Amino acid sequence: MPQRTHLAIALTIAGSDSGGGAGIQADLKTFASLGVHGTCAITCITAQNPEGVRGIQACRPDIVRQQIEAVFAELPPAAVKTGMLYSTEIIRAVAAFFKSGSRPALVVDPVMVATSGARLLKPSAIDLLKRELLPLATLVTPNLDEAEILVGEKLRSVEDLRAAARVLHGRFGCAALVKGGHLRGLKDAVDIFYDGKEELLLSAGKEELLLSAPFVRGVSTHGTGCTYSAAVAGWLARGCSLTRAVEQAKEYITQAIAGSRVAAGHSVLNSFWK
According to the model, what pLDDT value does residue 202 have? Predict the structure, then answer.
């Protein structure tokens, strides 16, 4: 009998997207494509499709906590990512779990607003996210709009991304991957990764890692942020260093966009391009 492969395990704590493009569905596809066993704790059920979010039903905080506990009891993950958390009650339940005992690498994607404009994090929950969850994170991965909310300033250039990454690291103690895909006037999608460590300075020859890839024109996809952060968590689960996981994730999301497919007239990420 051939020897069976042992899989690394990752956990996503996020909302369900009925359209299959973002949230739990995007995360589990990403984990699977990287050869990682994906587990999940669902925080919200959303009624949505590529055109927008029609409804949100939050799960009770106690069932969110029980899902996480059940996974850790029998399938302890080597890395965890959070996505849509939605409310103060859910954030408090998640943070309370990760404050107790040892914890794996935690990637926090601070999901706040959907591409369609729907709010995925209540305004009242933003302060709690910053106060309770981000100090527990290994990495925070805000897009441009989310980074502006977290640092309290408008970001208009790559230099602003650099400054924001340093502010986030200094304020919360975690590494930051500030995504500049929404910056105007650039030929490339530029992200800045900063963890404040000398190892990064030595390996990259600078204080931060600038990740750049050409924009894929004419493609509008849903779930890129979810997929990007899930790829980081997946590579971390497989044993990569944080810097290497971020580099690999940038390549992964770039190729997933470039190789996107069409479903009923809508562009969908190609999570299995590898």
Answer: 43
Concerning whether 223 is annotated as a catalytic residue, the answer is yes
Q: Read off the pLDDT of each residue in 148-174 and give the average, rounded to a whole number.
A: 94
- The catalytic residue among 44, 59, 174, 226 is 226
Is 218 in the active site?
Answer: no
Stretch 89-118: mean pLDDT:
89
pLDDT digits (tens, 9 = 90+) for 18-38: 999 999 999 999 999 999 999
243 is catalytic: no
Structural domain range at position 205: 9-268
Q: What is the reported pTM?
A: 0.94
Supply the CATH number for residue 185's domain: 3.40.1190.20
Q: Which of 223, 234, 250, 254 is catalytic?
A: 223
Q: Is 44 a catalytic residue?
A: no
Which one of 12, 43, 221, 254 is the catalytic residue?
221
Rg (CA), the chain: 17
Residue 4 lies in a domain: no
Structural domain total, the chain: 1
| 199 confidence band (pLDDT: 50, 70, 90) | very low
Q: Is 122 a catalytic residue?
A: no
Residue 201 has pLDDT above 80, yes or no: no
> What pLDDT is stored for residue 101 in this prediction?
74
To the query of whether residue 226 is one of the catalytic residues in this protein, the response is yes
